[in-house]
Prior knowledge:
Number of domains of chain A: 2
Oligomer: homodimer
Radius of gyration of chain A: 22 Å
Order of helices and strands of chain A: EHEHEHEHEHEEHEHHHHHHHH
CATH superfamily of the largest domain in chain A: NAD(P)-binding Rossmann-like Domain
Largest sheet of chain A: 8 strands, mixed
Number of helices of chain A: 14
Strand order of the largest sheet of chain A: 3-2-1-4-5-6-7-8
Strand content of chain A: 5-15%
Number of strands of chain A: 8
Largest interface: A-B, 94 and 94 residues
Shape of chain A: elongated
Helix content of chain A: 55-70%
Amino acid sequence: MRxxxxxxxxxxxxxxxxxxxxxLEGLExxxxxxxxxxxxxxxxxxxxxxxxxxxxxxxxxANIVVVATPVQAIGxxxxxxxxxxxxxxxxxxxxxxxAQVMAWARERLPDTVSFVGGxxxxxxxxxxxxxxxxxLFTGCTYCLVPDQRAxxxxxxxxxAMVQIIGAKHLFVDAQEHDGLVAAVSHLPLVVSAxxxxxxxxxxxxxxxxxxxxSGYRDxxxxxxxxxxxxxxxxxxxxxxxxxxxxxxxxxLRHYRQWLQEANGEALGKALTQARxxxxxxxxxxxxxxxxxxxxxxxxxxxxxxxxxxLARRLSRIEKASKDRK
Amino acid sequence: MRxxxxxxxxxxxxxxxxxxxxxLEGLExxxxxxxxxxxxxxxxxxxxxxxxxxxxxxxxxANIVVVATPVQAIGxxxxxxxxxxxxxxxxxxxxxxxAQVMAWARERLPDTVSFVGGxxxxxxxxxxxxxxxxxLFTGCTYCLVPDQRAxxxxxxxxxAMVQIIGAKHLFVDAQEHDGLVAAVSHLPLVVSAxxxxxxxxxxxxxxxxxxxxSGYRDxxxxxxxxxxxxxxxxxxxxxxxxxxxxxxxxxLRHYRQWLQEANGEALGKALTQARxxxxxxxxxxxxxxxxxxxxxxxxxxxxxxxxxxLARRLSRIEKASKDRK
Lengths: 325, 325
């Protein structure tokens, strides 16, 4: 059983670490990164068993290929690996937008290969293999968008991978996914970065910086992410993000209006509603969502695809999550 | 030596805990809160030696009075305590805006009392005495705005208080302060709250909430603050905040424009500049700023005002920070 991770940044590296932590017998993880130094680091950190600098060779004999590069690079990578994938291989990605990625997969991958788009809703302030963390996906929602041509077994294999790294899978439609993440992931990125732009480009920035404290630090956190990844996310989800930016600016105008009118009542009400909505959301995300039924297919799948040891581990995970209910 | 803290929320409670942690001999901390239950909690948590429910009695025989209520209440509190303050008393506040507070102090306090406006640049997601923390002020910048009528000794006393709780004082003009915090503290609050309003008022909020993750959580953190405090801050710093909101919306329009044009170069450049500016800022805030010279006045001040034991403690703090240099 061989899995290849292409792109060994924060997400690819963390995926490798999370898989390796489970010491799955008979699973070999191959890593590839266009930056050889990054691939070397990933190997030294134990995120992959072996770094392979040649992309076609990296996917040779792989059962599962995970493309964890910035979104814009995914199309290119799919095109490059397509001729080297054996029939039956399962390909997935971790890109932040899905409609464009699904279109690339349909265009560029052969019919004999199953594509299951993926997007783990997890992140960190600091990008890169240095920040990779085996626990990054614990408890996170992991969106899955199976291509129409993907076999049932392929989908099950990716669900199994998601479960092993501690995440909760959620099947969504690509268009729906992109509309939703535009609001809760991409809009916050622009909101955060624009706040830094507005303050750091001020002539008073030196003085502003002395007074900026934890509030500023938190609201601007997303501005410290990888700018290439950020740019790609925005460009591949342009229409949704434009729509949400307009919605956001409209809300800012309401706040501005209340301020202008010194309308303490409306302002207080809006702030109270925002606090209550956020606090309810926080309370709900703390609650363990009931594990989605994955049923007894795991044994079949794993025996077929991943070896008996993994099948036993999956059964244990499944049993433990049922016991918690 | 008696100090009275009026308003025992996150800031007032943390101030009490930070002072008490130092076990300053001969210092009695009296606490008052209009909510008797809060005052009782503060006493049980050890943030104050004694809760006094009657405001005039709470400031009786106090040497220092700290008003740590939401900004809008500060004017009223100053008016209520004014007739009960003995000559020579030092009054300070912890309000997030300073121009309005300084005007209230000038109008409402007698000439015999010294007012030194204060604003610790520290905060937390959760408000209230429950979240109070002796370490809240460690390393934070603490703005001080002495009134023209304040005596040198009064200013020194508040500087000493700031040092004891582990903060770094910074003298600023009230107008300058309000202009600066509008950008790095009040604008982030509105940016954060408006993001919750925009998303949580959407018909898709149920689905959005499932996908919202750590990025959304951080950017919206300030929306979970006390809405009364937030409203007061906005209203007492209206003109500055309006100006900064306009600057911010202008930057959002630039981002929107680049998106619309699919201008990856401009978008990538802006994101890179934002990341670099924030990373430089983070690196600088980590560096210990050299302690401001407080000189030998501490002995004089403390002997006069706070007793010999405090004087010795201050000398040790001063010596330790010099040794670090």
